[in-house]
Amino acid sequence: MSEAPRGPVHVTAEVVATRKAGAYKVLTLAAPGIPERFRPGTFVAVSTVEGRLARRALWIHRVKPTGGYGATLEVVVDPVGAGTRWLAGLPAGARLDATGPLGRAFSLPKQPVSCVLVGEGYAAAPLFPLAERLRERDCAVTLVVAAADESRLLSALEARRSARAVTVVTADGSVGRRGSVADVLPEVLGQARAEVVYAAGPAATLHAVAAAAEDVGAWSQTALEAPMTCGTGLCQGCAVPVVGEDGVGRMVRACVDGPVFRGDRVRWHDLEAPS
Amino acid sequence: MTVDLAGLTLANPVIVASGCGGTGRELVPFGALEAVGAFVTRSITVNARPGGPVPRIVETPSGLVHAVGLQNPGLDQFLATELPWLAQRGVRVLVSIVGRSLGEYAELGRRLGRSPGVAGIEVNLAEPDTGGSGVFDAREPFQIGRAHV
């Protein structure tokens, strides 16, 4: 078995294509070295407009091993602030600094078990490549995709191709069921007889997922969406309170110790309402 | 390119400032740590500190505003893990220290001063105690002078 290249690389990426996906913008980047190292759950940190120092951490949505530009990767941008609006406005041909893939990826089960994947908003991006990897291992994949409204629902059509069963939830009821992840998850976990739950999204949603998984005795792996200023672990800006294997509480970093954490290790109450 | 810094000879004048290089390990995937003239650690305290709540770093149009809260593993853990790792890399190490009292500055200085692998000590006096972080209030020149003695 050949050894895959490891460790992140720092490269100048070129935007080779852009497309709108509801409220989001999907950028296809030619970034040599990053697609080859990608595993679902990892992310890429990119620079933004001149004068802005913080990097933006973007989930890697998809990688394509071949194409006119060689291997490419897709990232999903939610244009909510100065940096992400600048990114969303980039035309094909633009260049930007990119570092990746960064962070710890989702762990894959060795046995073909029943997996439920839960994604909210643009954070659902890494779940699609994860679903592919799980299906290669003969795992039964059930997807829950959630969002505030239809425009923020990522790849609902693609979800139906990636999974055995799909549940769509929107807060305003514009498509699928009205409500939140917490409302539908106990039922979905029961129907799927879930043994592992993978989730990506904001802390409150992940907390609900971790609690629901605990209730049915399933493992949970949660990919935390948090601002990561450097993405490499040195700035200590993305602190996450956890309980270690030794039962002792400590602060770890979302970017290098995560973004994927075991749901039962995160002190969710401390994360959601810091003192 | 060698420079003399208060009697300390550095291979070149590039020094990684305190906090900007994390523990040093984070820089390794992107370049050789031993290529810099010296590496200044994040500020070390006698006892471990968990740091403050998030958000810790906020971007502004003119830079970053940060309040990490001196997160560090404490002196014992630093001497047991982070310092040996840095020393093995062959990089000149300057240890940044911050204390809650003059006694703590003295203890940090004494124990680090006799630790192999420490090329020098940087005294962090830029941490005003307005946030209740419990560090020695060194805003007055008089007190800064006392901490240096």
Mean pLDDT, all residues of chain B: 85
| Distance from first to last alpha carbon of chain B | 32 Å
Helix content of chain A: 10-25%
Order of helices and strands of chain B: EEEEEEHEHEH
Mean pLDDT of chain A equals 90
For the biggest β-sheet of chain A, the strand order reads: 10-9-8-7-11-12-15
Give start-end ranges of low-pLDDT stretches of chain B.
none
How are the secondary structure elements laid out?
The complex is a heterodimer of chains A (275) and B (149).
Chain A: E1 9-21, E2 24-30, H1 34-37, E3 43-46, E4 56-64, E5 72-77, H2 82-88, E6 95-102, E7 114-120, H3 127-136, E8 140-147, H4 156-162, E9 165-170, E10 177-178, H5 181-192, E11 196-201, H6 203-215, E12 219-224, E13 239-243, E14 249-253, E15 260-262, H7 268-272
Chain B: E1 3-5, E2 8-10, E3 15-16, E4 38-40, E5 57-60, E6 63-66, H1 75-88, E7 93-97, H2 102-113, E8 118-123, H3 141-148
Protein model, in words:
The complex is a heterodimer of chains A (275) and B (149). Chain A is of the alpha/beta class and 275 residues long. Chain A contains seven helices and 15 strands. Chain A is globular and about 50 Å long. In chain A, helix 5 (181-192) packs parallel to helix 6. Chain A has a seven-stranded mixed β-sheet, sandwiched between helices. In chain A, strands 1-2-5-4-3-6 form a six-stranded antiparallel barrel. In chain A, 21% of the residues lie in helices and 35% in strands. With 149 residues, chain B is α/β, with parallel strands linked by helices. In chain B, helix 2 links the parallel strand 7 (93-97) and strand 8. At the A-B interface, loops of A face strand 6 of B.
